[in-house]
Amino acid sequence: MTYHPKSDFIATMIERGFLADCTDYQGLDEALISGVQTAYIGYDATAQSLHVGHLMNIMVLRWLQKTGHKPITLMGGGTTKVGDPSFRSDERPLLGPEQIDANIAGMQKVFAKYLSYDDSETGALMLNNAEWLDSLNYLDFLRDIGRHFSVNRMLSFESVKSRLDREQSLSFLEFNYMILQAYDFLELNRRYSCVLQMGGSDQWGNIVNGIDLTRRVLDHEIYGLTTPLLTTSDGRKMGKSQGGAVWLNGDMLSAYEFWQFWRNTTDADVGRFLKIFTELPVDECDRLAALQGSEINEAKIRLANEVTTLLHGAEAAATAEATAREVFEKGGVGDDLPTLTVGAAELPASIVQLIVKSGLAKSGKEAKRLIAENGAKLDDAPLTDAGLMIDADALSSPIKLSAGKKRHALVQLG
User: Fold this and answer.
1) Using an 8 Å Cβ cutoff, are 259 and 304 in contact?
2) Minimal CA–CA distance to 324: which of 351, 303, 310, 293?
3) What is the β-pairing status of strands 399-403 and 376-378?
4) What pTM did the predictor assign?
5) Which residue of 52, 265, 270, 311 could cross-link 246, Cys pair, CB 3.0 to 4.6 Å?
6) Please, are residues 74 and 188 in contact by the beta-carbon 8 Å criterion?
7) What is the mean pLDDT of residues 319-333?
């Protein structure tokens, strides 16, 4: 893009690869240099933890605060009851209030690692849209807010159109979601002078709706900014690993496994990920990305250390690196590996069962294929017998199972 930003925030967004689109670059840029501005990103409480797919936008909020502005993390206690239909092929399962509250509590732990929630001018706010959505009167809402929405226009949004084009049902409940999200922006502007909504590029239609509604009702100038939908160089959606979602809560994914996810980044993604997921200077990210051959592994270790330090702390990152070096370079066991504890009553157990239970394969079929293709190891020795039984004697000391070169687990007797 040719626009040269004056604000530190927009300059950072462009330089580090965070920016997909903006409703008004110049207007937002001028607002950002005129004083402290408030911006938000919304998060529906559909799981007990955020995952790596959320991390890019969490870093956007962190940079917003670091460049002198006020971030809001808006928890969707209200909208989660409806479910965001954007680019989904089916309706989300509806959650009860207790589950939603438990999910919000789990997600809040992560935000506190990246943002400073305090009473200062740039202190982050943690809000819940149930605060205004739960008490809405339906008839008043239809009359005051619903009249500003054109169904023709809503049907033209890509997120809705893609669902209808595939002749997949879109319930009226879900269709309301974009009106509620637009109303969130209106309320945040009215209550907290919030002038900017940010989100992934799949949220563009919802963000534009909120801007239009706020202009019509309050006649205020507000903005939208989106980040690119991140895929790895081989086309996979960011945040998914062989074992499922890469969670950010330590009780759902260990710091070691989190570190290992970043260490396993493909060469082509290292530079981009360093700019997005760490705070290293851009020229240092470029230097590391340019490393060739085996040296690129040092760049991946730096990436893993920096990202893990932000989430789990420097000590956890150092421990993870030490464990990894022990496991890979010295063939050792490492204290910090994912560990499966097996009771004596469960023995003898088949090696296939243990591979599945330790998370190295999703099914017995996958475990057997891993063994047949020489991808499995037992204590660093090739595992060739899918019928092998492990008894209590074999577990007199912990055994190490490996799937490929990079995924390991310990099995011990409980």
Assistant:
1) yes
2) 303
3) antiparallel
4) 0.79
5) 52
6) yes
7) 75
Cis amide leading into 97 (omega within 30)? no
Q: Is the pLDDT of residue 39 over 90?
A: yes
Structure tokens that stand for 283 in this block: 């020229």
The pair of structure tokens assigned to 49 is 């933890």
Closest CA to 307 of 113, 49, 103: 113
The answer for residues whose C-beta is within 8 angstroms of residue 14's C-beta and 6 or more apart is: 1, 5
345: helix, strand or coil: helix
pLDDT of the residue at 96: 82
Rounded Cα gap, residues 378 and 401, in angstroms: 5
Residues counted in the chain: 414
Q: 8 φ, ψ to 5°? A: -60, -35
Which phi and psi (to 5°) does residue 342 adopt? -115, 130
Structural domains for the chain:
8-227 (3.40.50.620), 254-329 (1.10.240.10), 339-413 (3.10.290.10)
* Distance of alpha carbon 135 from alpha carbon 58, whole angstroms: 29
Cβ pair 261, 240 in contact under 8 A: no
Whether pLDDT at 98 is above 60: yes
Residue pLDDT, tens place only, 179-224: 999 999 999 999 999 999 999 998 998 899 999 999 999 999 999 9
Q: Which of 348, 403, 395 is nearest to 370 (CA)?
A: 403
